[in-house]
Amino acid sequence: MSALYKFTNGNSVLKLVDGAYRMAIPFDNLNRDYQEYLAWIAEGNTPDAADVEPKQIKYITKNTAYDRIEEKYGKDKLNQVFDILDNLDRENRRRYDDAQEIDCSNALVIAMLQSIGINPEDILY
Q1: Domain map (residue ranges) of the chain
Q2: Would you state the pLDDT for residue 27?
Q3: Which pLDDT value is given to residue 42?
Q4: 68 and 26 Cβ atoms separated by less than 8 Å
Q5: pLDDT of amino acid 45
Q6: Distances from the Cα of 32 to the Cα of 27, 36, 39, 105, angstroms
Q7: CB-based contact 114:106 (threshold 8 Å)
Q8: How far apart (Å, rounded) are the C-alpha atoms in residues 57 and 34?
Q9: What's the CA gap between 76 and 37, in Å, rounded?
Q10: Distance (Å, rounded) from C-alpha 39 to C-alpha 54?
Q11: How far is CA 16 from the centre of its chain?
């Protein structure tokens, strides 16, 4: 059975109304609905967990990344990046060649940049 309340991923809790979580109650001690929620908790009840939010993946175009590397670190550093890319194993090279964008959370990309002294945050974000 569902609880009467459900956590959100923000500064409120949802209240079950007519069989669905519809009413958002802010965490505000002056709010009457919030006081009712606190009393419900004090009785030993537990709200349902918040829905899991989908992971947001940020992408950057390869050309934008190249421009940022050259602008911040110079052409020699950009050439180091190209050398590393040329030496990737076949599967990663094919995946990279086919892509128009770079996943900014890609561990291989981050490690590659760090290995030649580039701060990934300067380029990817």
Answers
A1: 5-42, 59-124
A2: 92
A3: 95
A4: no
A5: 93
A6: 11, 6, 11, 43
A7: no
A8: 34
A9: 61
A10: 32
A11: 29
The 10 Å CB-count burial string (b at 16+, else e) for 88-100 is: eeeeeeeeeeeee
**pLDDT for the residue numbered 2:** 62
Scanning the structure block, which residue is given the tokens 């890609």? Answer: 106
**Tokens standing for 49?**
């967990």
Any idea how long the chain is? Answer: 125
Which residues in the chain come in under a pLDDT of 50? none
pTM, whole model, 2 decimals? 0.55
Identify any residues that bridge with 20 across adjacent strands, giving them in sequence order. 17
Residue 35 near residue 42 (C-beta atoms within 8 A): no
Q: How far is CA 104 from CA 67, 109, 121, in A?
A: 15, 8, 9
What would the two tokens of residue 36 be? 């009712």
φ and ψ of 90, to 5 deg = -55, -45
